[in-house]
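New to this. Comment on this protein:
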Amino acid sequence: MSHRNAPLTETGRLRLARCVVEGGWPLRRAAERFQVAATTAQRWASRYRRYGQAGMSDRSSRPHHSPRRTPTRTERRIIKVRLARRWGPARIAYLLGLNPSTVHRVLVRYRLARLSHLDRATGRPIRRYEHPTPGDLIHVDIKKLGNIPDGGGHKIHGRATGGRHSSAHRDPARPRTTHGRPNLGYSYLHNAVDDHSRLAYSEILADETKETAAAFWHRAQTYFTSCGITITRVLTDNGSCYRSHLWRDTLAAAGITHKRTRPYRPQTNGKVERFNRTLLEEWAYAQPYTSETERRQALPHWLHTYNHHRGHTALNGQPPASRVPNLSGQYRCTVSM
């Protein structure tokens, strides 16, 4: 395809060449007639004599010979290391004594998938999937999160004095663990994310027992139902609470099919795993909080922003609410603490 400033299309080149070759026009006269250089007129006339009409199309700009290209043997070594060890360009370059940019060009030339697109266990490309309608599959997971001591943690006081077990946060009235350190405890983020829309429901709870997980699911299902979403399947990992009879019976009573991920394959539940990461980056560790209460109070607003206003890269920059047709008028997301 000709570039936009080219004076001649393929039809124009053919007309020019025929004027010179078949009409006997001088090169200078043909060049003036078609407003191109005489050398250009000569080039298209020569191609017409040799190739006929087929020679009027553009040729590839790729050189016929590349003397400075990386040797084939070296390319094979790069590919072998990449497939065997799943290393990036920098580590491969150090091992083989090459420039990282050279290794990167070879990997791109052979269209090897990025490491972020590969399964860490098998090295195979990760299969991306998305269910066609909201409620076809809900991803559920639990994220353990350390509590923030009163007065703030290391983000405010520094790691030497603001750690969870530092002397600055010791309270004689609190029970102590081993080595005389106070136990501030943990919170458990129970999260549910719709596969199609990425609409999320989250609660901060005290533990991850089967009773707590089942009660969380009752509230999560109520929330999704209020958004007009009918749930048919739920996907979880193999945690003890999700293997319990109580969890099984809770889903069965609602007519929901329970699916579990393969052992040691958390990427199967990747959408809620990615939500966990976003939750930590944009809420839990986004700013220095002075207490656990302050951090918990910030969650409802963040979750509302995530569902209704924050653009999602997997949704072409639209928020999850844009994929839920019956969500109009829903502007609050309940979060238990």
In short: The chain has three domains: 10-56, 80-127, 138-147+185-327. The domain at 138-147+185-327 is CATH 3.30.420.10 (Nucleotidyltransferase; domain 5). The two ends are 62 Å apart (CA to CA). Confidence is low (pLDDT under 50) at residues 164-170, 174-182, 329-336.
